[in-house]
Amino acid sequence: MVNEPPGRLHHLLPLVSIQAVGLACGVLGVHWSSKLLPPEILGVYGLLASTHTLAAFVTHRGMVQYLQRHWTAECSASLFGRELLKAMPLPTVWLAVAAATSIAGLHLATGLGRAWVWWGWIVLVNLLALAAHLTATALQAEEKYWSQFTVSTVGSLTRSFLPLLAVFLLGTAMETLGAGFALHTMLWFLAGALALAPAWNRGETRKPPGGLGSAILSFLGVGTIGWVAQNAPRWFAAFNLPPQVNGYFMLAANLSVIVPASIAIVGTSYAAPWIFAAARAGETSANLRRRTDRNVWVALLLGQAALLALTAAAPVAVLCLVTFSGEAAWFRLSLTMLAWPTVALEWWLVQRWLRTPLS
Q: Which of 97, 256, 295, 296 has the fewest CB neighbours in a 10 Å radius?
């Protein structure tokens, strides 16, 4: 049985630092947005921003998983890039359909206008965010965690503050927020491309293995279910709550989702490279599942402990982070309740991990 290579614990420092910076930026972003944005605009913007993960987590998720499994420090970015580009058309059509569906839902729920403009915005920011995710995945596979930290920090800072800075300088408008968010995805991708620049000069010594098309199809279902499970409360709130209350709900969603996600990302980033290396070395599926089982359970238990802590801290979060006047009880109630729907998703993900062949 292939054991975990010794001396890898030092990798936890940059991985935890990535999530710490992301959490700090998120918390400060919530505080600043509650000062700058009316809650009715915040609710619409929160829904729009939540669609930027459609490509990386749903339609093109198989690409990210494929790269995570097969990328090594010997791989050529140009060779793998051509392979990914050849597979782009079909999932991009799915992305266009998903974007149109999201815009239709936003129009019905919030009355959002300029549908074609926002449809193009969703497609653009998704493709840029996908490219950034792919570069981060390659850096993670090579265990270049401090480079990944740099790229993620650029992403966290620009995501949390560029749209709000645009509002501060140019005035409150959905178009201003959208332009700031689009600029964030562009800078995030450029940071990743620069960090991965040496890979473009590598010789084409290792051809990408087959299976990219089947990976895209296989992970479309799991990505769709996960995305819907994570975002359904936001859409339910948009259709059923008054605009101002919906803004509070979006703030609560932003805080409650990041807690289990951060812990899961640390666990995956730490464990995935050596597990997939063991799979390429011929480790048996049974042993790989046992190793995966241990890591999933650790992430699950830590995530639930953090969610309990977040639930207990809900009153403090309201007092320290949110500066809206009135109806703070809605924010507290949302923050308390949103933690628990993630339990069902996490249990389902445990089963998905255990049943997916890693070799």
A: 97
What's the rounded mean pLDDT across residues 60-82? 83
Reported as a pLDDT band with limits 50, 70 and 90, residue 353 is very low
Average pLDDT, the chain: 77
Number of H helices, E strands in the chain: 16, 0
Segment 122-136 shows an average pLDDT of 95
Q: How far apart are CA 247 and CA 43, in angstroms?
A: 4
Cα gap 236→251, rounded to integer Å: 15
The more confidently predicted of residues 356 and 209 is 209
Of 190 and 204, the one with more pLDDT: 190
Nearest partner of 346 among 305, 318, 315, judged by Cα: 305
Tell me the C-alpha distance between 9 and 141, whole Å: 16
Q: What are the b/e assignments for 89-105, b being 16+ CB within 10 Å? A: eebbebbbebbeebbeb
Q: Which residue bears the tokens 């990219």?
A: 212
* Contact of 105 with 243, CB cutoff 8 Å: no
Residues 6+ apart with CB under 8 A from 144: 195
Token readout for 330 is 């809605």
The dihedral through the CA atoms of 208, 214, 218, 219 has a sign that is positive
What are residue 124's phi and psi, to 5 degrees? -65, -50
Q: Is the dihedral of CA 240, 243, 248, 251 positive or negative?
A: positive
Instruction: Report pLDDT for 180.
Output: 95
Decide if 206 contacts 75 (C-beta within 8 A).
yes
Residue 236: how many CB atoms within 10 A of its CB?
12
Sign, Cα dihedral of 26, 27, 33, 34: positive
Terminal CA-CA length for the chain: 14
